[in-house]
Amino acid sequence: MLMHRGRARLVGGLCAALLIAPALVAGHGADRVQAAAQPAGSVAVQPTRPTHAPPKVPATAVDDPGSRHALIARAAGESQPGAGQAAPQRSQPRSLSGQGSIAGFVNDGALGLANNRLRSTTIGIAGTPATAGYLTVQRDGSIKPFGDAVFVGDAIGGGCGFLAGITPTPSGNGYWTVSELGCVFAFGDAVFYGDPTGQPRGYVVAIRATPSGQGYYIVDEIGHVFHYGDALDHGNVSGFSHPVITSMAVTKSGQGYWLAAADGGVFTFGNAPFYGSTVPSNGATVDILTTPDGNGYWEVSINGTVYPYGSAKQFGGPAGSAYPYSAAIAPTSTGNGYWIAKLDGTVAAYGDASGALVGDPDYVVGSFNSTQASATAADFSATIDWGDGNFSPGRIDGSKGFVITGQHVYAHPAYFVLAITLHSTAGDNLLLKGVGVIEPWQGYWMVASDGGIFTFGDAQFYGSTGGKHLNQPIVGMALTPTGLGYYLVASDGGVFTFGDAVFYGSTGAMHLNKPIVGMAVTSNGGGYWLVASDGGIFTFGNAHFWGSTGALHLNKPVVGMASTPFGFGYWLVASDGGIFTFGDAFFWGSTGAMHLNQPIVGMGGTPDGGGYWLVAADGGIFTFGDAPFYGSAGALHLNQPIVGMAPTLFADGYRFVASDGGIFDYSAPFFGSMGATRLNQPVVGMAGR
Q: What is the pTM of this model?
């Protein structure tokens, strides 16, 4: 099992000896430090998907770590007997001919968790017909079978964005997965009926098969519903103002469906009855699934609370546990229990769901298949090079396809080049390579106006401008998606990059009408936006221009911005709390018409884009949409004003920072502050997780 933080995170309990001690670091570094090397890897076993066929690769293809072509085993058939050898009998050795892939690409892949173990974010779970097993699916495309679940392939390296969901065929001998960009991949006896690639839509959030297994529905965050095969159109909520849609469930007859929104709201279509809904008290709704009898449904929130309606029963949930963060739910065939897949890949069992199937902490490191139908896992072995000088044997599971799992603990957050050497009983080998990312799990960074950086928790120091002459002061900072680097931005728009942050341009040499006051990074780290106090927007890299207030008269200046989860929009906030939305950013409310004791100085968005927080200079906090209220400093006497805020990774808390470096934490761990230290220049912002 691998570990440290990630977009899915903490595994089990903390191992004190392996935790990174809280650090306090101030230092200097180079301007415009270039990013770490891009990941190497290969495309996974290719699924059935006519519109996304893999490139042809010769059977003698050389492992090219810079490519994403499929890696093919060197031996293309059964090993031949040498001189004086008898021909192999029925128990002949099995070769590795087939395709393979390694999980853990930098663009998501293996994300670190609390004890420095790798793991990709789990986004879905699908039970088998006999409910004696299930499949979990990770955001990087890897799939892991448990119990009687059959692994028949995965979409690692499918080239169509991160995965968003999985749905099984009625037989349990196949499944479909769908990516956030709408690409459908069919495996086993699942048939490809089409997908919404190329159609106007938001990011896809779920796929659900029809009861016959001869079609499926796909739903996006906006509420568009796409139907294929024998799936029928019963309506959608696109075009209406509503919170982000996060999942869907199909009725037992297939003549209707429910859509679930991040705020717990349920929308019914066709013959789907409304059984109830609840605004979650502890985080956004992430999944909805119907009961086996079709007369009810469960909703589950990201913080592990299960809400039953109709015939659905409450059997408990991971809320309140050490790691409650949940991704999806799968009921047993009786309806008297369910499994909940957590973001870190662990699975919790409730009711009559078998607990014997949970607790396997191994991370899916790679996958491969064999062209020999009779091959079994016993025909192969694997050695994993974890990239830090350590090696261990990999565990191989599967029948029609094979997954390689393993476990390892790293010493610190970083990029690691993983390599798997596969061996077959025929004596041939296959080398797979990829990049794993151990990300900071819990910690925060502060930046001063001279660019000095202060780190706490497992936040790492990658450099600063603290010892440099700057043309204009630093006004803000932003993390890269991995947390293994950061950007600093000055009021003239000069951009300084550290760690794996990539420099895409700046306004440092331009004449600006108004100074820059903040920045935001795109979801894949391929670009960034800068915002000026008049609301002017400057885009770099793959950051798209969605609009600005640069030509408008504003009552108060813009003081900050936040991007939506997938980078298809952003919010701007003014010092009076006025909110301006662009792209797919929803308006959830503002303080523009309210009298404030102190001006707004910053904002933060929730992970699902369904809400945001505004923070004032006196530490007052204002919540909108699905952003929870955890407390504020509005009634406290502060030595210095608040200058910024940072929500935790899963929006289960937040922190404020004052200009003297004091930290105010609410439902978030405290790792230290600069409040008692004399600073050369005031703190102007923070970033954290």
A: 0.70
Helices and strands (DSSP H and E) totals, the chain: 0, 47
Please compute the mean of the pLDDT values over residues 600-623 and round it to a whole number.
Answer: 93
Alpha-carbon distance 31 to 7, whole Å? 28
Place of tokens 């202060």: 454
Residue 41's CB is within 10 A of a number of other CB atoms, namely: 28
CA atoms within 13 A on the CB side of 234: 22
Query: Which residue matches tokens 């895409």?
Result: 504
**Geometric angle at alpha carbon 390, from 387 and 391, rounded to 5°:** 100
Sheet holding 621-625, edge to edge: 600-605, 611-616, 621-625
Sequence-ordered list of residues with C-beta below 8 angstroms from that of 421, at least 6 positions apart, any chain: 382, 383, 385, 429, 430, 431
Residue type, 481: P
Percent of the chain at pLDDT > 70 equals 80
DSSP string, 33-60: PPPPPPP-----S--B-GGGPPPP--TT
Instruction: Return the DSSP state at 17.
Output: G
Q: How would residue 579 be classed by pLDDT, with cut points 50, 70 and 90?
A: very high
Contact of 415 with 38, CB cutoff 8 Å? no
Residue 391: Cβ within 10 Å count:
12
- When mean pLDDT is compared across 38-52, 330-344, 585-599, the lowest value belongs to 38-52
Query: pLDDT for 212-271, tens place per residue?
Result: 999 999 999 889 999 999 999 999 998 777 777 889 999 999 999 999 988 889 999 999
Strand partners, 625: 611
Angle (CA) 160-178-397 rounded to 5° is 95
- How many CA atoms lie less than 13 Å away from 625 in the CB half-sphere? 28
The DSSP letter of residue 16 is G
238 token code pair: 């696109």
- Quote the mean pLDDT of the chain: 79
Residue 167 DSSP class: E
Per-residue model confidence (pLDDT) at position 119: 59
Burial class (CB in 10 A: 0-12, 13-18, 19+), 425: middle
Q: What is the 3-state secondary structure (H, E, C) of 352-396?
A: CCCHHHCCCCCEEEEEECCCCCCCCHHHEEEEEECCCCCEEEEEE
Question: What's the full length of the chain, in residues?
Answer: 689
- Please report how many Cα atoms fall inside a 13 Å half-sphere around the Cα of residue 188, on the Cβ side: 21
| Residue at 656: amino acid letter | F
The residue ranges of DSSP E strands in 452-541, in sequence order, are: 453-457, 474-479, 485-490, 495-499, 516-521, 527-532, 537-541
Lookup result for tokens 């069992």: 349
CA Rg value for the chain = 25
Residue linked to tokens 């119990």: 147
**Burial of 423: CB neighbours in 10 Å, binned 0-12, 13-18, 19+:** middle
- DSSP class of 119: E
Q: Say what the pLDDT of residue 32 is.
A: 22
Opening angle at CA 221, ends 220 and 224, nearest 5: 45
**Nearest-angstrom CA–CA distance, 135 and 400:** 14
Q: Secondary structure of 301-333 in the HEC alphabet?
A: ECCCCEEEEECCCCCCCCCCCCCCCEEEEEECC
Query: Quick check: helix, strand or coil at residue 531?
Result: strand
Cβ 452 vs Cβ 25: under 8 Å: no
How far, in Å, CA of 460 to CA of 477, rounded? 14
Q: Please give the pLDDT value at position 405.
A: 83
